[in-house]
Known about the structure:
By secondary structure, the protein is an alpha/beta fold. The protein has a single domain, classed as Rossmann fold (3-Layer(aba) Sandwich). It has helices at about 15-25, 45-55, 90, 105-120, 140-155, 155-160, 175-185, 210-220; strands at about 5-10, 30-35, 60-65, 120-125, 165. Strands 3-2-1-4-5 form a 5-stranded parallel β-sheet, sandwiched between helices. Strand 2 (about 30-35), helix 2 (about 45-55) and strand 3 (about 60-65) form a beta-alpha-beta unit. Helix 1 (about 15-25) runs parallel beside helix 2 and helix 1 crosses helix 7. The chain is globular, with a radius of gyration of 17 Å.
Amino acid sequence: MHKKLKAVCLLSGGLDSATCLAYALKEGYECYALSFDYGQRHRVELNAAARLAANLGAAKHIVVRAGLGDFGGSALTGDIAVPKGRSPGEMGQGIPVTYVPARNTVFLSLALAWAEVLGAADVFIGVNAIDYSGYPDCRPEYIQAFEHMANLATKAGVEGRTKFRIHAPLIRLSKADIVTLAASLGVPFGLTQSCYDPAPDGKACGACDSCLLRRKGFEEAGIEDR
């Protein structure tokens, strides 16, 4: 029997990361889901991540504490208001205050560490460079640069035992494309959590950039958000 390749999949609990995990599973990988408690105001997403990992069939799911909230500097981790009600044009201007300094570099570094321990060569991340994200660590050139670094910085890479690959299958998709892909992969939309500023009970605010982009994606895809 052919043994499945292992992969580490970053899983925030949101729509994009859930779709990325479902994609990796469909590609035949044995997936190890990795989530982070980094001091985010929307920590309720970790509950969503746990539900998604179990529902989709991850081999294991762990949550690692990464103290980015100790630094602040972002609307997601500090005393900065989350923007609400912005137009697509406003979202497309510059880097938003919801950018968390060096977040994906920290997350990918820890994913790389786990991958090396597991003997996995593949790391999946659900970043997206389209639809107004504006985050510098969601760009294709960043992913390529990190992959290059990964093979310089690890024992497995230097010894030639492993050629690390950073997969970002959603990076050039619109939100509508992601919704369509998620539906085809059977992602349980009702288990995902996208809101940047949810109520204490987890209810989405409906007005932050993430909520608005999610709504736009579902509307353009012609699919109901359950």
